[in-house]
TrEMBL record:
<feature type="transmembrane region" description="Helical">
    <location>
        <begin position="20"/>
        <end position="43"/>
    </location>
</feature>
<keyword id="KW-0472">Membrane</keyword>
<keyword id="KW-1133">Transmembrane helix</keyword>
<keyword id="KW-0812">Transmembrane</keyword>
<keyword id="KW-0614">Plasmid</keyword>
<feature type="transmembrane region" description="Helical">
    <location>
        <begin position="63"/>
        <end position="81"/>
    </location>
</feature>
<protein>
    <submittedName>
        <fullName>Uncharacterized protein</fullName>
    </submittedName>
</protein>
């Protein structure tokens, strides 16, 4: 009997600040208005009869909607400005974008391909990768393409899911080894650069204090 197909992986997307603030404003609109009416009644400003209270509540609601709406729009505008600044930083910072894309790919695939692949993904997530290195970023893109292609194939594999999972695990193991090797190379290059700069500074400025 073929195993049941795994649910399709979903890409985890960050919620924009502006969208979050809009949701908060809508969610708290009615509770805030009810609290306003309660406070108004507690201060003795509400009429004592229903016939007098209803027009009073409507007038109060008009002012409330105006002030609440303006305050919400101001907060949403500030949040949208923060979203734009964040997007600009990511556009100008390929390392940050690579880190985020890797974390989203790993999170979306961790429970999709079985325990062997999940263990490899956890190991890759724990690696101290140098995303400032262009070769590392290229490997991360290859990893994302592998997971996307394997996920799409798994949805259509029917009874051939086990071989696909084994093939995906083998490819991930190879990519993990390549990432580890590149991480070591980046570390060696960083150390060489630090030693070179230290030697340069010593030669340039050390003789002034001899």
């Amino acid at each position: 009997m073929a195993p049941a197909p795994m649910p399709a992986a979903t890409n985890v997307r960050r919620i924009r600040r502006s969208r979050f603030m809009a949701g908060v404003a809508i969610h708290f609109l009615a509770p805030a208005y009810i609290l306003l009416l309660i406070a108004d009644a507690a201060m003795g400003r509400a009429p004592g009869t229903w016939a007098g209270w209803l027009p009073h509540a409507l007038r109060l609601g008009g002012w409330f909607l105006l002030i609440y709406g303006l305050a919400s729009l101001a907060l949403i505008a500030l949040a949208a400005a923060g979203d734009r600044r964040g997007a600009q930083r990511e556009t100008h910072d390929p390392a940050a974008q690579s880190r985020w894309e890797l974390s989203q790919s790993l999170a979306g695939a961790r429970d999709r391909f079985g325990e062997d692949v999940a263990a490899l993904l956890d190991q890759i997530a724990a690696m101290p990768l140098d995303h400032d290195d262009s070769q590392t970023r290229q490997m991360v893109q290859d990893l994302q393409r592998l997971l996307d292609a394997a996920g799409a194939a798994l949805d259509k594999a029917d009874g051939a899911q086990a071989p696909l999972r084994r093939q995906t695990a083998a490819a991930l193991a190879t990519l993990k080894q390549a990432l580890e090797a590149r991480s070591r190379e980046s570390g060696i290059l960083a150390q060489d650069k630090a030693r070179t700069l230290a030697h340069y500074v010593e030669l340039k400025y050390g003789e002034k204090f001899d």
